[in-house]
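Protein 1 of 2
SEQ + STRUCT:
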Amino acid sequence: MFYSEAEAAVSEAPSPQRVSPRKKQPKIMLPAPLPTQEYCELARAEPSVSDSGERMLVILDLNGTLLYRPNPRRKPSEHKPRPFLGEFMEYLFRNFHVMVWSSSRPENVAKMVEKNLDGAQKARLIACWGREQFGLSAKHYDQNVQCYKNLQRVWSNEDIQKKHSDYQDGKRFDQRNTILIDDSALKANAQPHNLILIPEFTATDEQINGADILKEVAGYLEKVKVQSDVSSYMHKNPFKAGEHTYEWPG
């Protein structure tokens, strides 16, 4: 399901006891990109399993998905990782091409990546994108605006395409083989059936001590990675918490 219109978020009024240098501004809702007719037609096709062994692309969000930043304005790089993030990253790099795409500023993205990926994993990232990769105007870059992850930006980037394992054989990253993992459905409005939507991580006691959602995502990816077109499979079989599992190696 995609959003045809986005409603502006209403910020909470600050507590009278709290003295802040500036109030949090309401989110500016920029127009959301819509799925193309071609995209929708391909996603409606019947899913089928492929034996090509093609290595797919997983695009990772950071804040709210893999980690939680308690105070993004004053301490933008301070964060708490989601439980079993290390095991999940090891799984991803064993099975997929991996990139990061966050709406945070690039210097903060770099710090979060530095703290959560080891040297070999950082070297294997095919891209690490921050706020500069959303096509925002200079004015909007510094404002609280709704960002959208239109995967066409990824697919039209030749430097990224050259990282495809079978680039020399004519293979490219596209709708068939790209998976976005995010906690916001709205960000994936242009390609809703390439999204694994997971609950926002806010580091509550229940999330820290409860079910391992990343293990469930890995279990789902085990089914997705053998599909000839991930969008047609994910259209008919979207990720749902509690329906998948995976055992982290030893």
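Protein 2 of 2
SEQ + STRUCT:
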Amino acid sequence: MPRHKSYTAEDIISDVRKGLPTTSRFLDRDRSMLVVQVAQEAKQNPRVGLGFRKKGRHPTLEDLFIRLLVYRYWNLRQEQLNKECFVSSTAPSSHGLAGYLSRCYGLDHNHETASAFRCGRRLREIERGVGLEGCTIVLLSSLTKFQQLSDNEIPRITNMLLASCLPDLIENGQIMQKLLQYQKLYSTTISASTSDKTKLGKDVTPVQIQ
């Protein structure tokens, strides 16, 4: 079988520099309806958003944006479960948290879901290392490469973001805030009761940054 190309931190940072203007323009348009629609579908099928690759089609920015939200959503849930492990004697071991959480939501813990949890963990690791919640929005254009990164490249990406891209991150703080608000919208929609589902349609309030 052909081996996938391995990427480096330099590849990711190059994508950040090239893709940041496109990412910013993408978020100039309100994406609330897209987020709500996908979140509602994910309530019925948790696999929604995990697979954006379709034969003969390169993932669009919309695909990548949803994938970013899904990655972060599942990792945030895993982090919450990890906290609960400290107060519950029946909680699964930390090694089995991803599989346990997958099964709780009706997902087979296969290669696809394992990759999603791994990518989410890497993104959150970068956010903690940089010290800016939501800064992984600048990685949007490089998201397809995260599965072909070694773990050793993650701290290198963090260090390179701090060393050469920090002014850009600070200047683009607005798109980070948009990501966090869309993340909240996604999580809130998934958590909404079934009886509230019909209310999350045309009346969705657009994300607004002050």
